[in-house]
Amino acid sequence: MHTVAVLAYQGMSVFETGIVTEVFGLPRPEFDFPWYALTICAEEPGPVRLVGGATLHTEHGLDVFAAADTLIVPGVPDVRDEPSPALVAALRRAHARGARIMSICSGAFALAGAGLLDGRRATTHWRYAETLRRRHPAVEVDADVLYTDLGDVLTSAGSAAGLDLCLHVIRRDHGSKAANLVARRLVVQPHRDGGQAQFIEAPMPDDPADDRLSRSMEWALGNLATPIAVETLARRAHMSERTYLRHFARATGTTPIRWLIGQRVHASLALLETTATPIEEVAAAVGFESPVTFRHHFQQAMRTSPSAYRRAFHLG
């Protein structure tokens, strides 16, 4: 059973830890494979003060934390302080033996302080991005994304983005069907790509009934196998191409083409998991112009090839 340990710290909000507990800690009898075993740890076993005056008590310290298969740092008490030498040692020890290490929100400061992000791309909450750059200039800080996945080290933006990252990890470990089922139980969107913008300007339209943009996106999702140009989407929304691009960016934080690529990759997952359809036919079925293009975008999004993904997650 894959062990997950999340670090509790003095003065913490329970939201980020609650995300981890909800995703990895609850039993999942709907699955016929072993789920994760979660442990909440602290630098020193005992009481941990929480925001609001409550107290969490854990018997598990950094020895248990460092021994887990996946370690999660959901935040730090103060982004201006260095992580303790004991925490740094635990993170380095776990990373050296091949553990997967994740951060949520300001937890990236602990990973950076341990040297795990030097020369590597990482994210944190957009409010802390400049502080992370200044304090850790060796880190390639990307403040525009929801999460990053380097395989061994994963970072996420603000609190809710931690949920996106946790679902991404389930998708990576057990496939999109499992991630979708967990998302449904949580009543959240099953997949937001890590490259999606942290902050999206989405003002209410002058006319709430004007859902031309959403109708064009719904049409695109129903016609992924066909070539779709921005001009086509704009025409369906009864907008000029320039106006459509502006509205699309304000509503989604990305471009129509980038959004389409993400939707096509996501649509391919079920075909790879549940059928033996050749990769060439999967590419065509979700609208990629060639298998080469499909493999390129799949690799960019999933950090693996379609064939390797099928070998890992095919349900048959």
CATH homologous superfamily identity of the largest domain: Class I glutamine amidotransferase (GATase) domain
Query: What is Rg?
Result: 21 Å
Could you state the order of secondary-structure elements as H and E? EHEEEHEHEHEHEEEHHHHHHHHH
User: What is the tally of helical segments?
Assistant: 14
- What is the CATH-assigned architecture of the largest domain? 3-Layer(aba) Sandwich
Q: Poorly predicted ranges (pLDDT <50, ≥5 residues)? A: 200-210
Report mean pLDDT, rounded to a whole number.
90
Q: Strand count, sense and closure of the main sheet? A: 6 strands, mixed
Roughly what percent helix? 40-55%
CATH topology of the largest domain: Rossmann fold
Domain count, please report it: 3
CATH class of the largest domain: Alpha Beta
Report the principal-axis shape. Answer: globular
Find the structural class using helix and strand composition: alpha/beta
Number of beta-strand segments = 10
Query: Termini, distance in Å?
Result: 22 Å
Strand arrangement, major sheet: 2-1-5-6-10-9
Q: In what range is the share of β-strand residues?
A: 5-15%
